[in-house]
Amino acid sequence: MTTIRTDWTREEIAGLFELPFTELLFRAATVHREFHPPEQVQLCTLLSIKTGGCPEDCGYCSQSVKADSGVEATKLMDVRAVLQSAAQAKDAGSQRFCMGAAWRNPKDRDMPAIVEIVKGVRDMGLETCMTLGMLTPKQAEMLKEAGLDYYNHNVDTGPEYYERVISSRKYEDRLDTLQNVRDAGINVCSGGIVGMGETREDRVGFVQTLATLERHPESVPVNALVPVKGTVLGDMLADTPLAKIDDIEFVRTVAVARICMPMSMVRLSAGRESMSDATQALCFLAGANSIFTGDKLLTAPNAGDDSDGALFAKLGLTPLLQEEPMRTRPVMEPAE
Questions:
Q1: Which of 44, 129, 260, 283 is an active site residue?
Q2: Please, what is the Cα angle at 39 between 148 and 95, to 5 degrees?
Q3: Which of 74, 103, 220, 258 fits 191 for a cystine, CB–CB 3.0-4.6 Å?
Q4: Per-residue pLDDT tens for 257-308?
Q5: Could you confirm whether 98 is annotated as catalytic?
Q6: Alpha-carbon gap, residue 222 to 286, rounded angstroms
Q7: What is the pTM of this model?
């Protein structure tokens, strides 16, 4: 039986990355089957409820005020419009409705509408997830009281590479928000982006950061960078070999995340629209068991419901109907 560990060393994680590819996938698939139904994949929908105008300088993001990407800033969506989108997502088979706002952090004046949105989506029978930037302990408590199931706050990359991507906040700020979310009793969704010009060592650091938290994130999204013209990274990587991460290296990252965080939902997230069916199939074999469905992820394109339906039919996959294991089973004690 696999033991849930929070004491992973960089050397151990690097050793997993270096395994022969077929051996790595075998180990990841074995761990995955111990905790998850291998033929089921969770369907999630992501909606931008407040787009653009973010004061952060994240080099990958088209919604930053520092980016010349053509994304126009909008105000927070009307509550009724958000609920209408949530209803459509449920009709399309989504289990979780994720909402993102392009803020550094929400203002207190925004919280009543956010609370109303969470309650409304929960009343539909959907799981709720929000990503609003950094949170204070008080704001996290308000979201918990509203019934928020998950809060997303990605660490983005390993700690050493982070300052090459973002300068407007520190790595520790992200970890502090994750702790505020955890202390409030909200499930944590945290992952990162690969293909930003980082090295494998940086990807090792990224996985280690999440795998050594006191409790693993319930959801771990693994994104492939979508280089957007007008963003720092989009312009820097354009027309270079680094503009797209190698598919096998991406699958390796998914597999290592699965082995190190056995009970977490590992989400094959942004960048999927440019992946072949074969690459996506390898990711599912490696332990990915959650995707965003629909035509758009915040401002980036996505594969779309029809494409996903065809892929699921081809691979014999079905939507997840049950609760995630970290929400239904006690997490085993970390190894001593």
A1: 129
A2: 20
A3: 220
A4: 999 999 999 999 877 888 899 999 999 999 999 998 865 444 444 445 578 8
A5: yes
A6: 12
A7: 0.89
